[in-house]
Amino acid sequence: MTSQLLTVAAAAPRVHIAAPEANAREMLALAVENADASVILFPELAVTGYTCADLFGQTRLLEASRRWLNWLAKEAWDKGVKGLLAVGAPVPADNQLFNCLVLLHGGAPVAVVPKSCLPNYGEFYEKRWFAPASARLSDHVLWPLENGECIQVPFGEDLLVADRTGAVVLAAEICEDLWAPVPPSGFACLAGADVILNPSASNETVTKSDYRRQLVKGQSARCDCVYVYAGAGDTESTTDLVFSGHGMICENGRLLAEQLYPAPGSVIRAVVDIERVRTDRLRHGSYMESIRPAPWRTVRLAADLIDPAAQGRLLAQRPVERLPFVPDEPEKLDGRCAEIARIQATGLARRLAASGAKRAVIGLSGGLDSTLAFLAALQAMESLGRPAADVLAVSMPCVGTTQRTFGNAAALAQLTGAEYREVPIKNALEGHLKDIGHSADLYDTTFENAQARERTQILMDLANQEGGIVVGTGDLSELALGWCTYNGDHMSMYGVNASIPKTLVKAMVAWHARRMCDEHPHITRVLLDILDTPISPELLPVGQDGALVQKTEETLGKYDLHDFALYHMLRGGYSPQRILEMACIAYPEVSRQTVRTTLKTFYRRFFTQQFKRSCLPDGPKVGSVSLSPRGDWRMPSDAEAAEFLEFE
User: Fold this and answer.
1) If we measure between CA atoms, which residue out of 537, 602, 511, 616 comes closest to residue 563?
2) Can 589 be counted among the known catalytic residues?
3) What is the pLDDT of residue 1?
4) Taking the CB of residue 529, how many other CB atoms lie within 10 A of it?
5) Are 9 and 33 in contact (CB under 8 A)?
6) Is 251 a catalytic residue?
7) Which residues contact 262 (CB under 8 A, 6 or more apart)?
8) Strand pairing report for 254-259 and 247-251
9) Which residue from 94, 151, 186, 611 has the highest number of Cβ atoms inside 10 Å of its Cβ?
10) Average pLDDT value for the chain
11) In the chain, what is the straight-line distance between the N-terminal and C-terminal CA atoms, in Å?
């Protein structure tokens, strides 16, 4: 497994104002409790307290700060804390005092990063005591140790800190730096930083936490980075201000952990994924087209921060969504579905208007995909101010059609006011098979595909006859797996479901059912029954009792797993082995062998079926994962899957 996972932590220690010894002991206790973390960030000026004011001018306080930082570095290392400790501290240099983040590792300071932007407005007076990073003259500070030795520690806002192998690179900015028009962290990430550390002492006022959260999430998303933010807590002086201990850990714009007004000594932790950070940067071709940063200096640690042996354990600690395309929260899901429905309807309405089409012609089978496409067509007509009857729903029953799906298709069309027609294809199928010399009793691929192509021919001809266009029904999961008939259901004049995976199709149909339940309860009942119907192309003859005999997921495996693989392959760029491990975590009730078999089916079919995706009809993109050959996914049709099938 190629994962690059590590645990990062943001602490809100109890602060003792102007008491470095007490503060160092508080931080040591938290460091030891979180000794398995690779990085632990403490707030701005945590070793003294942010609210010392003119006490920062006292030599005694500055000397004690340095002395107890040395003690903290050595004690933590001796007690088994092998991660990087990042502590806010005042640091004298170049005849000035700087507000810094001191990075401790191996029992000593390894880097000192000064604050670039000093707030000196409203309640802030930092320029009274501190100089900005731009005022520094030196690249190093002389740092006395307790054994009498004096070491040179790299000093500057232009520092990257990399572990021994370069598997993770960190940089820092301090509080106000993030609020600047151009935060230093943007340049740090362009220079190669994966993780940004921000020790802060942002006081709390009404609505400020919301804005602060937006800043952190936004910078993490913009820079494709891990952003760790540790704010000063409520044990700072409250003479004029209150501090909330706001802590956040974000990864590529996603908030992984947060605390606000925690109890003193609280720590938030998250397992972050450097592989995801770097993969997203590679995917975003414009990432390095920004203004190039000046050269940055790299401090190399003597040890690794990522433990290969711990990757499996860390992976199990990361939240893994079972349905990555479908939000968990009901409110968020409803909003997502409404937005997708609007995109579908807008795209189709534009195509109808641009083509001058009089009708939207759709094959309505009573299954999930055609139901969603049909609902999108109705919404498109509504947006154009046209009647539902301008949607022509065509049912084309054959030997595999069950009474359940046939009845649901008819009921849905009639209840919504669309025009409904039945065009049985059994006779046409038998005639065609006879023409090509194929036995009507041989239920093979030819038998199945002939039905799909016959239905497409009927729809295309009806569209010509009615002056309309054929609305495609196939979804993203079927395109990924090639579970469609080339030049059959694969083809249309506009595919409204083309970038919606099967798991999200289900959620969309359920959302439509919910939104109609009050005004159109009869339609809702039909939609709920469609949702409850097993997924099937209905191409093989029904049983003697008229029951369905062909169920897609019994052949392919569960769509939940296929969509899981599709999302993490395309969105995360993860290896098959990594996706297998994640799927086993997300689906503990499914045996590892079943998961492995399903994923191998996914990769095998994904590679062999690209030729179908290379000539897709137009259709609207609705999410970050799409397989359109014109926009998102270009792949040779003769690529080989062998390398992607080697996982256990």
Assistant:
1) 602
2) no
3) 47
4) 17
5) no
6) no
7) 12, 233, 245, 247
8) antiparallel
9) 186
10) 96
11) 10
Encode pLDDT of 186-205 as tens digits. Answer: 999 999 999 999 999 999 99
Dist. CA 267–CA 265, nearest whole Å? 7
| pLDDT classification of 547: cutoffs 50, 70, 90 | confident
Q: pLDDT tens digits for 59-97?
A: 999 999 999 999 999 999 999 999 999 999 999 999 999
| Options 44, 126, 176, 204, the catalytic residue | 44
pLDDT band at 545 (very low <50, low <70, confident <90, very high): confident
Taking CA atoms, 11 is separated from 33, 52, 128, 232, in Å, by 11, 20, 27, 9
Q: Which of 52, 117, 175, 223 is catalytic?
A: 175
What's the pLDDT tens digit per position in 162-183?
999 999 999 999 999 999 999 9
Catalytic-residue membership of 115 = yes
* Residue of 558, 532, 536, 531 whose CA lies nearest to 548: 536
Q: What does the pLDDT average to over 425-446?
A: 95
What global pTM score does this model have? 0.91
Quick check: 435 and 321 in contact, CB under 8 A?
no
Which one is catalytic: 52, 100, 115, 612? 115
Please give the domain boundaries of the chain with CATH numbers for all domains: 5-317 (3.60.110.10), 330-645 (3.40.50.620)
Per-residue three-class SS string for 144-212: ECCCCCEEEEEECCCEEEECCCCCCEEEECCCHHHHCCCCHHHHHHHCCCCEEEEEECCECCCCHHHHH
Sheet order of strands, 159-162 included: 254-259, 247-251, 226-231, 195-200, 169-172, 159-162, 297-300
